[in-house]
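Give me the fold.
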Amino acid sequence: MVATALPVNNEKAPPWPELRDDLAIFSGPKSHDGLPTWTLHDPLSHRYFRLGWLEFECLQRWSIANPERIAVAIEDETPLEVDAANVEQLCLFLSSQQLTKAKGAETSRRFAQQLKTGKTSFWVWLLHNYLFMRIPLLKIDQHLKRVVPWLSGLFQKQFIFVLAIFACLAVYLVARQWSQFTHSFLYVLTPEGVLATACMLSLSKVVHEFGHAFAASHFGCRVPTMGVALLLGMPVLWTDVTDAWRLSDRKQRLLVDAAGMIAELTLAVFATILWTMLPDGPFRSGIYLLASTAWVLTLAINLNPFMRFDGYYLLADGLDIANLQDRSFALARWRLRESLFGFGHPAPENWSRDRYFLLLAYAYGTWIYRLILFTGIAWAVYYFFFKVLGLALFAVEIGWFIVRPMLKEISAWREQIDTHDKPIRPGLAWLVPVAAIALLCVPWQTHLIVPGLLHAQAESTLYSPQPAQVRKVWVHEGETVKAGQVIMELSSPDLDFKIATSERQWAELTEQLASQSLELQLARRNPVDSETLQSTLAELEGLRAAYKKLTIRAAFPGRIRDLSDILRPGEWVAKDEVLGDVETPKATVAAYAEEADIGRLQPDGEGRFYPEGGDLSPFGVRIISIDKTGTRQLNLEELASTHGGAIAVRPDAERGLIPEQGIYRVLLQVADTRSKLPITVRGRLSLETPPESLIGRFLRSATAVVIRESGW
């Protein structure tokens, strides 16, 4: 932490405090402008503070116990320019961080008040820590000191060169088996693959944390503990390498920051080479996960500079800006307030032009990232927990991590406006919040975008009722047919033989029954022959009905589509083989709207359908019906997310497609019935609706979710 970053407190300064005897000061790295720095260590709280030249000189003369005399001594003995206010500011900072001795009743009361203010209730503590909670488990510093000398070769430049050679070898070997390597990723999506991925991620995380620990211990830092951090309830390893702040060489700190990722990259490189040599089996599948998904996911998380992971510390140490987030946030808040209200307050710190814009970009980028992240976390906890707890955690996430910081900043604006002695005049920067408020509150949305599928109003698929031979085809592709019109004729020699056999058997039985005989034996057989005759007649009628089905007719007026290529006289077709389709010339569009949006749609409402691909021009549609009940199972696979559609679904035990959200089916009629449209085209619809604001839509959607999920 940079001591000079704190504002000056205008209250009366307390009696001059003495520094604690257990504090230690180390030489720090040179700053980006070449000035020396020092590091102040507080062993009680295990915290480090970065001191500049001015702060160091003040501490050297702290025994003078007078801010004016300290300032004069520094100006006389060094080229620094300083006044008593700078010394008092440092004094307040040291006292606020409890780096001074508590002397007298007033000082003790002040420290007690600071301790009381810093304490939080259990629920507030839980709110701050349930997303990321650290649990120390092992004290490994002594063990590391015994092992690290054996690993000194890993911290030489030659190791990076060797690792690069093996990485090139791994890329070459994988390139030769690239198709097999990419197709092996499908294994990750199976239940067994998810479990194996979790195990391999845990292994890579162990290697990652030991990389940090070995690097810190190699450079003489103490690694007091390793433990488990609960990240959204998922256990991940964690290592305390705070002692790396005592390193005066910035390159060494950068190496400690990057050691975990370098260790994972090393593991991934050798796992990749091993994968190319192993035979197929469970062990090879596990090695594949290390060679691909495990380290990719870990690097994607750890390289993120917007959260306090490795990427953040690499960026902070690379720029040599301690407390990067806090200082960039302070600068961004100051810039925002000055742009909106022009208070005329000085900047919290003076930066060069390049660093000024870099810190502003980083701060605003972090705010936007956190807005997206916490919104996603809120949705995740809502989705994974049961209804009541999910809604409560969702409200807590949105309220505490998104709404609360905004209200806190607005409250700071009001306080500064009240103390500002000049009237606030609107500036150009006001256009941004005004435009944002207008975008959120003004009803300007007059269209609703929903996924839809263009398909025929009626469709009949032509099948071969049994194995048969094509005799004659009476129609062609795209030809219009009438109801009952013959489309094709099939023949079945096997069926012809069975019909001829049954006809002969029926004729013989009929002749026997027609002849009147007085013989007792024939008379007794007569009832049996009569029953056999009826059975033969029923079989014959069934065979003739089957033969009649070999003449395939159109069930309704329509158009021929997708005739099979094998429909040529003399060709054989299998049973239930698809021969073509008959579809009505009229087309309809089936769309699905979310539960929160269904109230905005009305029958006879108009809109436009935009087909995917761009080969077909958009055309007008009209709503003809809206379902009164939600869709429990999606029957149109083309719109399902599992088939590339826009509707999120999950398969059930019977492979049905169950929508993840409440949706309602909307049927629409194509406005221009004269144009011939290709059937079964996926796209999106823009439906006309009454004007609505974004905030109104959000409140309506939130209300619908609360009512649905709470069971009201």
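The mean pLDDT is 80.
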